[in-house]
Amino acid sequence: MKGLLLKDFYMALKYCRVFLFVSVFCIVMSFLDSDNLFLAFYSCMLCGMIPVSLLSYDERSRWLQYSETMPYSRAQIVSAKYLIGLIAQTTVLLVISAGFAVRLISAGTFDLGVFITVILLTLIISLISASFPLPFIFKFGVEKGRIAYYIIVGIASAGSVISSNLLTAGVPQNINLNAILAAVCIIGIGLYALSWYLSIVFYKKREL
Amino acid sequence: MNALEIKNLTKSFSDFKLDNLSLTLPSGCIMGLIGENGAGKSTTIKLILDMLHKDSGSITILGRDNSENIALIKEDVGVVMDEVGLPECLTAKQVGKVMKHTFKNWDQDEFERLLKKFSLPDNKSFKDFSRGMKMKLGIAIAMSHGAKLLLLDEATGGLDPVVRDEVVEMFAEFTKNGDRSILISSHIVSDLEKLCDTIAFLHKGKLLLCEKKDELLDEYGIVYCTTEQLPLLDRKSVKYMKGTPYGAEAIVYRNSIPEGVKVSPISIEELFLFMVKEAR
Questions:
Q1: How far is B52 from chain A (nearest CA, A)?
Q2: Is B196 helix (H, G, I), strand (E, B) or coil?
Q3: What pLDDT, in 10s, does the model give residues A85-112?
Q4: Integer distance in angstroms from the first to the last C-alpha of chain B?
Q5: HSE (CB half, 13 Å, CA atoms) of B241?
Q6: ipTM summary value
Q7: Chain A to chain B, count of Cβ pairs less than 8 Å apart?
Q8: pLDDT tens readout for residues B236-256
Q9: Shared domain check, B260 and B197
Q10: Residue in B with minimal Cα distance to A66
Q11: A7 touches chain B (CB under 8 A)
Q12: Is B185 helix (H, G, I), strand (E, B) or coil?
């Protein structure tokens, strides 16, 4: 598994630099515009696309076939892609969290509840958006999976704008935000776990 | 122990069927798989590696069923496919690091020795390698993790004749101590003739023949004659025959040819071509 992660790391350094630059830009812009959380969400979701991009290069170089000559199980090959995505998303999330906390503290408006809500929402939305294309890709190949991903990113982005407006406009008193947040977290993590499981099942059945 | 045992292996596609293939490769031996394009050579190797799922039959690699923990079995199997599918951005040095974390028995010194032997650059991207260089890197990987069985699918394709000769010698050296084996498929029958102990002919998914090379060469010979002389040969002693622009050629059983008839040695390539044309 370490070998697979190292190989993906080398590839990400070479092919996914643009993700890094766009993520940094989005994070900086989101800090400058305190009312707009979309860019922070977007940078995190963008990193969820790294596994899709790496799989595209894998398919082009016939790595998927070549890796079958090595002592890796199909489950490990799938899991390496999920892990590399998680590592990238977690790294970006940590940067967003640190910047967001600094901004709130310096403005004297730090509220632990709002802070945790925003970070959790960012994590869950990016996990959900990353979880959709991978089972399609592991079953059908990169192109069809990519189409599914673009649809999901559009939906998730719209959702993030709505969430952002909800947070900034204040929460109606009859809505239990904590309950909604807990439900979103459970659904998000559940979908991600389901996606991981389905990818393994599909890829095990695929003939290369 | 046999390095590889294939029993009644069958795999169907919409336009091709690998039909009831059975092969045994004893330890210390080299078996050559010869066949036209689409004969089933690559399909056989993919089935051995469980890249394709068999319809029926069994495959045992180094005494272990390939449907049980194939990942573990692959620690002991070196593979060179007709295309080495390494990521294009990786250098040979990075490939070494990846493989070090891939194979438990990875031998970095051996890998570096082979890189030098093949004159492969350390820091050049894989995408800038020629086809021959790519194959050499694939061979270096396959031979640097203490494999007990090498599966080579057109592994000498793209190599120039000098390097090909060196590589064929390396493969022969690989099996010298008696506990390591090779299954090799190639279009370059002369390489297989030089290297193999056993030859298997595949044609349209069926095994036409699987015999020890020396026995084949002892058993069969070729008679060059005129078309008028051809009917004079005993039909029972003739396996295949054909007309040529200069007369006729017949593959014969050496034992049953009467004295006085000049029988020339046959090459594996000639035997293969005769058999395939006959099968058509």
A1: 5
A2: coil
A3: 999 888 888 887 887 788 778 878 778 8
A4: 36
A5: 22
A6: 0.86
A7: 80
A8: 888 888 878 888 888 888 888
A9: no
A10: B85
A11: yes
A12: strand
